[in-house]
Amino acid sequence: MRIDIITVLPQLLDSPFAHSILLRAQKKGLAEIVVHNLRDYSTHKHKSVDDYPYGGGSGMVMMIEPFVNCIEKLKTERDYDEVIFMTPDGAVFNQQIANQLSNQQNLIILCGHYKGIDQRIRDNYVTREISIGDYVLSGGELPAAVLVDAIVRLLPGVLSDETSALSDSFQGDLLDAPVYTRPAEFQGMKVPDILLSGNTPEIEKWRYEQSLERTRTRRPDLLE
Ligand code: ADE
Question: Which family does it belong to (predicted)?
Fold first, then answer.
């Protein structure tokens, strides 16, 4: 899978993909993540990428031309399945959307800033608008990193134990059961006896009950 991210702040995305699972996915050739500096696609003298809004009002609006220059260049190199715009007024991201996107080959992600991006980009180039939650961040870079992480870890071969993505909270209908590791007792705090019993069917049953209980108390909406 290839993911191209277009941003005015490429430095913000230096680190999120350079460690751990996301780094391994790239080293294994399972994911290629390329960050593009929007300013490189500006034809203005000071490499500006924003301008005052028509009709007045506060805040700057990101211009159509640099985005289109970058998107069109990428589209000459390969076909893209989706052009995604990260925005707080998009559809709220969830595991189902992550699953859908992980089945695609090539994605472009646009990061907004300031007051927003020229509506003509959204109308004519963007195929999907995604929010990572009902709060406003300073730009779309961190949301883009969240999206990419959630997608890439689902690609076959990325996680060492392939079943572990399948048993994630949200991947089924239930939240995960609690987990413990050694020592079996720490300052009087004990690991539940059942997990030390070696009785696999009983452990599975306990985990299922814990999942159900967690989901019922924390996220009853998931059971509806
Ligand atoms: N840009 C700013 N806030 C955002 C959010 N909550 N989700 C996606 N993109 C954003």
Answer: Belongs to the RNA methyltransferase TrmD family.
Residue with CA nearest ligand 1 atom 7: 131
* Size (the chain), residues: 224
Ligand 1 center to residue 135 CA distance, Å?
Answer: 7
**Is the entire prediction scored with pTM above 0.90?**
yes
What pLDDT, on the 0 to 100 scale, is given for residue 69? 98
Task: Specify whether 26 is located in the same domain as 96.
Answer: yes
- What pairs with residue 117 in β-bridges? 62
CB within 6 Å of ligand 1 — which residues? 86-88, 112, 131-133, 135-137, 140, 143
149 in Cβ contact with 133 (< 8 Å): no
- The complex's ipTM works out to 0.98
- Indicate the number of domains in the chain: 2
**Coil, strand or helix: which one is 158?**
coil
Write out the residue range of the structural domain in which residue 13 sits.
2-152
pLDDT of residue 197: 98
Rounded-to-integer distance, Cα 50 and Cα 112, Å? 11
Residue pair 104/82 in contact (Cβ under 8 Å)? The answer is: yes
